[in-house]
Write a structure and sequence with these properties.
Number of domains: 1
Mean pLDDT: 91
Number of strands: 3
CATH class: Mainly Alpha
Shape: globular
Largest sheet: 3 strands, antiparallel
CATH architecture: Orthogonal Bundle
Strand order of the largest sheet: 1-3-2
Helix content: 40-55%
Distance between the termini: 29 Å
Order of helices and strands: EHHEEH
Structural class: alpha+beta
Radius of gyration: 12 Å
Oligomer: single chain
Strand content: 15-25%
Length: 62
């Protein structure tokens, strides 16, 4: 996937997708468990990273 094809999500969008709080998303980003790009004072998370994190959580729960 090229950078032009990448879709970036806000912290609020990621929190909604993962059914967690925004603070949890910030913790994941700061710990390095969820890659993100910083734009000024806000973070954007690649959609593929959220999908991968969710897949990993589902496989760990199985």
């Amino acid at each position: 996937m090229s950078l032009a094809d990448a879709r970036f999500l806000t912290v609020a969008e990621v929190a909604d997708m993962m059914s967690v709080s925004r603070m949890t998303v910030y913790r994941l980003v700061h710990s390095g468990d969820l890659p993100a790009i910083r734009f000024g004072r806000s973070f954007r998370v690649p959609e593929w990273a959220v999908e991968e994190a969710l897949r990993n959580l589902v496989s760990e729960a199985s």
